[in-house]
Write a structure and sequence with these properties.
2 copies of one chain form a homodimer. Chain A is of the alpha/beta class and 329 residues long. Helix content of chain A is 38%, strand content 18%.
Amino acid sequence: MTAPDPIPPTIAWVDGCVRMIDQRRLPGELAFVDAKTVDELCDAIRTLAVRGAPALGVAGAMGMALAQVTGADPDGAAAQILGTRPTAVNLAWGVGRGRAAADAVAEAERLAADDVARNRRLGAHGAPLVPEGGRVLTHCNAGALACAGYGTALGVIRAAAEQGRRPSVWVDETRPVLQGARLTAWELDRLGIPATLVADVMAGSLMSGGEVDCVVVGADRIARNGDVANKVGTYSLAVLARHHGIPFYVAAPLATVDLDCPTGADIPIERRAADEVASIEGHAIAPPGFTVENRAFDVTPAELVTAIVTEAGVLEPPYTESIGSATAG
Amino acid sequence: MTAPDPIPPTIAWVDGCVRMIDQRRLPGELAFVDAKTVDELCDAIRTLAVRGAPALGVAGAMGMALAQVTGADPDGAAAQILGTRPTAVNLAWGVGRGRAAADAVAEAERLAADDVARNRRLGAHGAPLVPEGGRVLTHCNAGALACAGYGTALGVIRAAAEQGRRPSVWVDETRPVLQGARLTAWELDRLGIPATLVADVMAGSLMSGGEVDCVVVGADRIARNGDVANKVGTYSLAVLARHHGIPFYVAAPLATVDLDCPTGADIPIERRAADEVASIEGHAIAPPGFTVENRAFDVTPAELVTAIVTEAGVLEPPYTESIGSATAG
């Protein structure tokens, strides 16, 4: 018998509404937020109550289910949901799937269940990449909270732990929204996987000290050539990993690949509000009105990516070919 | 006639005590803290009311002046001051200078005045390295607030502005203590130099986008071979700058060179409290009791440093020779 998952579902259809772990309130409190309308769901997406590319895929489908159940105009609902966040391609994928279904609720629930099963396959494929006792550095949160459950990058680490490989994790805090400190640390704590929190700026010191065996991150969108858009800061880690000869792995479901994007230059990068950087918990950390540039994502070129771990297996360069074969199936 | 400096002295001897800008309260409030005893000064150093290698040099001398004025045991006072922070070599230098002086107050005041004059010379030497309209990225605070006045890395930028080169600045926020967001942004705002605040993780995106013309940082200690200890995150910037072919400059007075350190491996790296990372303004951002690694500094190897800007001129590789000549003088 399997022990119950220590992390409840990130997003689920419950009693006619979309119930989500309210990620704005972690790690202080495990609370839930319910969206009963498309408006409420869009607000939850925009304010990062729910975030993470695979979770946004499910959220997109559940949004179309809400539209169907509440009798909202499907064109308007789809446009509204797609307008919330531009970078994760999964959102559009989920909206499309929910929209095309006769029973959008059933389809959304199926996507959520599929996501967990897919992440378990992805994790099993990726686990052997983590050396015995390996010290894995990760950025942002590509865990259960970024998906319907189990996780992608954290799924690889979790599967490695389940296979007895005894990984430990360096958790980048991930400014400005602190998804590493708030969410990844919370998940690893619940899972009992040894982990240490560091400020993002410490990655170089860890790598030059020989304290990192591999980097594993998620992805918000992958271009056809293997260029990867992910949380801002990912690219710096990839450059550092290359400089130190450390493998750099991306873990993401194939739905993250956007065949309409030939390269990373075609991926739109979301800019978010200045306030996300200039204040923390309502407290100003910069002079009033100071100019801020706040890009939520950056693009890591394919040549810095050692491998891409998917539910279909571990894809290796050249990615145009390996991605092409995997997505043709 | 010169306009008054928009930034008051960081540290000065006033009415028998050491008056410092209280950097813990910036950018919200320009307030001062007075130390009347060695204990009070050590507390100000430890809690970062005063920080920055050149300012710590002056603080060391002023601490010995306090010891002399209050009749404290000089051995005990010196040991106490040196125990506050291990990485900046300037602290030991200042303590030594104050201790050797018959009139420690006069010596400390002279060091403070010398520091400002030295930084102006350093700035004038470094300014031509900033291209016309150059976009300069800096990390932490190596400005007037890190010195008795004027600044080292920011002194270079300030001198470039004074010479009509119209620089603009990317300000790294500099987690965990946010010296960039809180102090560098405040200084540039006061100086009227155009600047934009970014999370540390955005440096890679800026460099890959061709938006950075050079990096200028300060130093807490420089080894004889040119290896540089500076605020954690500096090393990552140096690796990124090299990857993108962007010049990486270190600006520091010659007193920052520690001839007793053959290489960076000999420089002690201060570890600070977990709480500095795990909470912000008293608000927990990680699960309670989560393990944290918090190194205050990292070491950038000499081969990644394009040049070291000092009051004696711009030193170029090989640093063993150029530093040797400059410090022999």
